[in-house]
């Protein structure tokens, strides 16, 4: 259990889906922390000290003890602060939540990014198909308002990338990554998620995120 005297900080970048995951978990728990903005082009000594292996964000620091990787951080937060549980209590349901959260990272995140950040048509098509195949599994899996039931849980937090970032990639790149007609349940879920009071408060403003990725994409196209 956490004590009253806490030193909590989060190293991250505004606009990162992985940092946003941790921010949602912290907000759900009602935990106050210090946000330390990183510059990934010129990584701070603090980041290199706390995450020397991957040198990536997010890094959550609790009383000088660093934890890296967004899904691991969320589990740590959930086990440290008991209020508003994020993972199910039943071992089987907990295992399923872990499975689908990892599935999103393994099958959706990488493929969506590759589909967006390539000008090779065959690569775009291949990765788009991978995303569509993965989303079909999630479309079949969602049974309630959220993956976590009536309240958001680990899978919903992991899938914020699908709800907020994938539509941005889709619009900028002229892709068909997340068509609402093909995935009606998942689309409805995505709207519920991004309009959830906690998520809405934590999500970065869409316009600057859109502008950032549009500039990245236009630079890619120009270099073709």
UniProtKB/TrEMBL annotation:
A Pfam family per the record: GST_C
Catalytic activity of the protein: RX + glutathione = an S-substituted glutathione + a halide anion + H(+)
Top-level taxon of the source organism: Eukaryota
UniProt entry keywords in alphabetical sequence: Transferase
SUPFAM superfamilies: GST C-terminal domain-like, Thioredoxin-like
Ranges for domain GST C-terminal: 90-212
Location of the GST N-terminal domain: 6-85
GO MF assignments: glutathione transferase activity
Family: Belongs to the GST superfamily. Tau family.
Protein name per Swiss-Prot or TrEMBL: glutathione transferase
Organism whose genome encodes this protein: Flemingia macrophylla
